[in-house]
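Q: Here's a chain of 205 amino acids. Please give me its 3D structure as tokens.
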Amino acid sequence: MTAQEIINLSVAGELKSLAIKSDTTAVIGFLNLGLIELYKKFSLSTKEYVVTLVGGVTNYTMPNDFMWLVGAYEHTVNNDGSYTISKLMINEADNSLSINMTGWNTVQIPFIVPGYQISLTYVAQPVLVTEATLNSIVEIPAQLIAALLSYMAYRAFLGVDGKQQSEQSNHYKMFELEIQKVVNGGMITTDNLSMYERIKNKGFV
């Protein structure tokens, strides 16, 4: 579904009684906030980032779409040409080989071996909508559209006077209910699947 189609549904439905429905910039903002919330809850995009170590450098900046780190792996080439993938710990204070987050998007890697590669898997943020991309497909599964619409309404009602607080609360409850329907119905892949096999099977980029 395109961003414009989602906005049309929102304007004709949950936002119908609000004057802000005519403010395209604001409605796009509600849409983007909803996307971020859904990506936080379901880790809808997981990517791999391979760091090639540089001598004397231990801190590396993650890509611009980084949200949080979910896995770290070292790639060792064996004498026979095969390779071994080993999982590394993350933020383990008592482990000298642990990968550590020293900033929200900065990773500290304890190895200083120039050319050595470490694979980092992370949850990526969504591609946000702009007025120029309203006809582009929004990257969420169809079963989350209802939750997105409820969250957009919740954000819209946050800006109105106190008389509408019950509406704000109801829309957030509907958002949570739609999330539970998806989770309880097994309609989405959870984020606890092993990243090990994914990387092992495709190798390093």
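Q: Can you summarize the key feature?
A: The longest strand covers residues 66-77.
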